[in-house]
Here is the input.
Amino acid sequence: MKFSYTLLKQLVPRLPDKAGFIEKFNLHAFEAEDTGGDTLEISIPANRYSDASSHWGIAKIAAAIFNASVKYFGKEPKTELKNKKPAIKILAKKECRSYSGRYFEISRIGDSPEWMKVILRSCGLRPINAVVDVMNYVMLETGQPLHAFDANLVAGEIGVRLAKRGEEIATIDGGNYRLDGSDLVIADEKGPLAIAGVKGGKRAEVSPATRKIIVEAANFDSPGIYKTSRRLNLFTDASARFSHGLSLALVDFGMRRATELLKEICKIKVGEVTSAGSVKEPKRILKFDINKFNLLAGLELKDGVAMDYLKRLGFKVTGSAGRRLVEVPPERTDISIFEDLAEEIINLYGYEQLPANPPRVPLVPVHSEEGVLLKEKVREIMRGFGLSEVYNYSFVSRKQLVEYAEPKWWGAVSLLNPISADFQYLRPSLTLHLMRNIKDNLRFYDGVRIFEIGKTFVDKDGKFEEKSVLGAAIGLKQENPIFELKGVINELLQQLGLTEYFLRDLDWDLRFLDQDNSLRIESDHQVLGYVGLPKNSGTMAIAEIFLDKLFRLVEEEKEYEPVPKYPSIMRDISLLVPTDLRVNRILEEMQRAAPKFLDDVDLVDFYEDTNLKEGRKSLTFRLVFQADDRTLTDEEVGQEMEKIIAALTEQFEVEVR
Here is the structure.
C-alpha cells in the first residue's frame, strides 16, 4: 500500500530521514520500501487494515518506535445549519453495522490545495475537485472510506439495503453493473445511489454545479463487500479496506476529520449528523502478567518497560505489576489474547535482541510410519502395471455430482465460501475426477490408465468422515477395460500380502455404477471397495479401495508362515458355463466344496466364440492342492476334484470339457 512520507512527517515531526525511517520500520513493524520521490510502499498484514491502512495508524506505530508523539487533528467545527440533516435507515442490519450521514452547503466547488494534491498523487490517486479530494484524503489519513452525494439529486430517505435481483447501476467511473440479491447498496426512493463499500453511483455524483452535499461514512460486513467486489470484478481502495474489516470507531473519526477539512478548504456550512446502527466498539480488556511474558519471550523485562511499550501504542494500562489490565484501542481489531500483547511488546523491543537459545526437546528413536510406507508401495505397484499417477482438486461442482445423484445422496460436504461454482463441494469420491480425466484424454489416445491416492469427505448424519482412498481408472477404445482393471486390483491386493479377499456381486447402491458389471471387494466381513463399469460407459472401468481398512487388514496378515515341507499338486479344469455366471461365484463354490486340501485357485484362460454352445463361455482354472502333514496322492486329489465338479454341476449346470 502506498504512503506519503511528507504526510507521515507532518504527523510525527521527529521522524528521521526517509532511509532511517524505512530501516527502523522494517525491524520493528512491517516491510517498507522506498519507491522513489515522496512515496513509500508498506506491506500491511491482512489483520491490520483497521489500524494500519492509514497514515494516522502508521504514524502511531512510527511514534512508538522512535518514542515520539503524534500530532493530532484540530477540533470539529460547530454545527451552523440547525435541523438540517439527512434521513437515513439501515434495512440490512447484518450487512451494515453503522451508517452516518452529514449535510453541508457550499457556495462553490473549486480545486483542492496543492499540498493535498501532492499527497494524493504520492498515494496513487488522481485529484478531481475539492470535495472529492477531501473524501479521498481523509480515507488516506484516517483509514475510513467516505463518499459525497449531491443532496439535490437524492430522492427522499437514504436506505442501506440489499439490491434487488437484476437491479442496475451506473458508477462514477462510467461502468454499468447488474446486481444480485447478495450485493449491498446505498439507495434512495428512485434506486441505488452507490454499491456499498465499493463504488459511488453516477446519478448523485458531486459536480461543479453542486451546492448541497451529503457525506457518508459507514461500516460494512467485510465478507459481503469482498464477495461483491470479486463478483463484479470491481476493486477500489475503499473495497480493499472494507474487505479486510474496519473498526466502528473509524466512522465517527473519519466524519469529524472530513468536516474539519471541508470547513477549512471549502468554507462550507456545516449541518447536523444522522447516525444509524452501532456507533462504538465494545471495550476489550486483557490481563497481563510480566512473569508469563518473560517465560514466553525468554527475557527478563521489567514490568514498567513492558507497560511503556504498550502505552506508546495507545493501550491504556491500569493495576499494579503482576495484575495489570490493558484496554485495547478500539481500532486494534487484531488484539484479542495475551499473546497479541506480547507480540506488540516484542516488536518494539526488537526481535534482533531476543536471546538465541537452542530449543530443548526430548529425542525419540526413529520409527517408520507404516501408512506412508504402504502408500508408497501401492504407488510402486500401480506404476509397475503401467498406470500413471494423477493429482486432482479436492473439490467438485454440483454439476459433477447431479450427473449421477443429488449431493445429499453423496453425503457431499458443501463449502461456506467457495471460490467458484466449480469448487462448491469437497469430493465424496475420487472417481468423479478420474472419470473426467479418462474422457478428456481418451480423445487423444487409444488407452488411458491412471490412479490417484487422496482424501474423500462425506457427511454422515452431521458427522464428517475423511478417508484415505485409492482410485483407479482405465479407458480403452477397442476393448472392455473391466478385465484389465480387475486383474490389476487382484494383483495389487496379493502383492500387499492380503490373501483372504473376495469379489462378490455389487449389491450396493452406487448410482454411478452399472450394477450388472460391477463387483464389491470384501475381506474379513468388511467392504474394501469396488471395481466396475460406470453407467453408460463401455470404454471405461473404475475402482476405489479404502486404504485405511486395507492397511489394517494387511498388517494383520503379517504373520510368520513356515515354508511348506511337502510338495503341492496342480490340476487344470476347463468348464463350459453360462455367460452371465460370475467367476467369483465359481471360485467360492470350489473353496466350499474342497476346503481341506484346496490351497489356491486361479483363472488361467477365458474364451468366448460362436463355435461354443449359445449362451456359453469357456473358463479354465488352475487348482493347487496341498497338505501340511504329507504329500497328497493322485487318488486323494482325484477325490477332491470329483467333489468340486459335483458341486459346480449341481449349483451352476456347468459342463467339464
Q: What stands out?
A: Residues 569-656 form a domain with the Alpha-Beta Plaits fold (CATH 3.30.70.380). The longest strand covers residues 447-460.
